[in-house]
Amino acid sequence: MNEITAWSAVETAQKIREREVSCTEVTKAHLDFVELANPVLNAIVESDPKQALATAAEYDNNWKAEGLPPLYGVPVTTKINVDQAGSATSNGLPALTENIATEDSPVVANLKQDGAIIIGRTNTPEFSLRWFTSNPLHGLTHNPWHPDITPGGSSGGAAAAVAVGMGCIAHGNDLGGSLRYPATCCGVATIRPSMGRIATHNPSHPERPPFTHAMSVQGPIARTIADVRLGLNSMAKRSSLDPLWTNSQGNNEEKKRRWKIGWFIDAFDDGVDADVMAATASAVSALKEAGHKLIEMPPPRALDAATIWGDMLFTETRIMAGESIQTMGSPEIAGVFEAYGTFYDELNTKGLLQAMQQRMEIQRLWSQMFDDIDVFLLPVSGQKPFLNDQDVKSPETIPDIMRAQRFLYLVNVLGLPAATVPVGVYDGMPLGVQLIGAMHDDAVCLDVAEALERAVKFEKL
User: Fold this and answer.
1) For the chain, counts of helices (H) and of strands (E)
2) Fold for domain 9-235?
3) Which residues does the UniProt record annotate as the domain Amidase (predicted)?
4) 3-state SS class at 258
5) The model scores a pTM over 0.90
6) Which of 154, 204, 330, 381 is catalytic?
7) Among residues of the chain, what percentage have pLDDT more than 90?
8) Is 154 a catalytic residue?
9) Confidence band of 256 (pLDDT split at 50, 70, 90)
């Protein structure tokens, strides 16, 4: 990083407001750093420096002492699976390279409206359906901590870019952990917002299937929780393109000096990696030492929730996208999808309705749990970050991968917010925990995550 790219989004916005630095200087510094760092990481796969600098120059000309939007001049990245006018929404597929968006998706429009300058588009696996980031169109994205370890997926490009300072905030999305897993793999922070908190729709694509829409969210990845909060507030503005968008601000509780936090490590009772156990225990200890109340308690019906996610999602995907995966995807993604799918059942109509009913039962149990605690702390994954493309290169390990990632996707089926914070480095790789909140208590998740961030003092790249 250079001095400017090392600034947080909050610092960058403040320095631009106070005219300590121009939008053009900030944008050029980030673009120069992309040119230097990206050939090693392959995190940003599309960029238009000319347009970014033109936008920065326009912002400099329009600067005013008061009333600037919160992200004015702040460099950000977007993921190649959302519509951005003039760019291809390829989703990592060579077949969609000519799918040029003519208008912005809500999350991109909201970032632009708040003054962000988009410096690039980040990589994703084909169909954004893996916890690894590679595709035939743009190749493999590397983890800045170790070249042989995955940066996570599907927002691996976003996390790798922001971890080293290519942009201050990265956009990503999360259907089965695709914000939280890359964040922990790359040692950065994020929040999987509550269902409906950020409007989502790609005008260039058909409507998303119902279970995908109910379990997938858009969100920010950044180097600090303060930057995550800044990104969330900008991304979460209303858009009529998403009829399920919600304006709920949660319980509006004042920030507490002492939080009540439930926690558990082995939520599925089949073991977790020793370093994952140590990282989670260190987060619990740090929060206790900071004066918060920690209560060890098993989460309600965690295995059932994870199973419902898999059964519903893979049934829907086989029916609604199975043909596209076979005809548009590579043999690798087709094989991986089939292997992932064998871990869960394909449901008939009765089975789907029963799964939806059970989902509501479990959502109620979690809702009632939050009568007694503010957030629930869990590992992000049951294992340390996997090797690059491990699901393709070692398909016999896919059942282990699916089991490890249940910590992630049980949250998706519940629709709850979950913030992720890195807490330490183990065997050279960062590990984090997730702080899960009650529905729409996104701010509470971020408040507790900020308390943990202060307590552990994680050293970023």
Assistant:
1) 16, 13
2) Amidase signature (AS) enzymes (3.90.1300)
3) 25-446
4) coil
5) yes
6) 154
7) 96
8) yes
9) confident
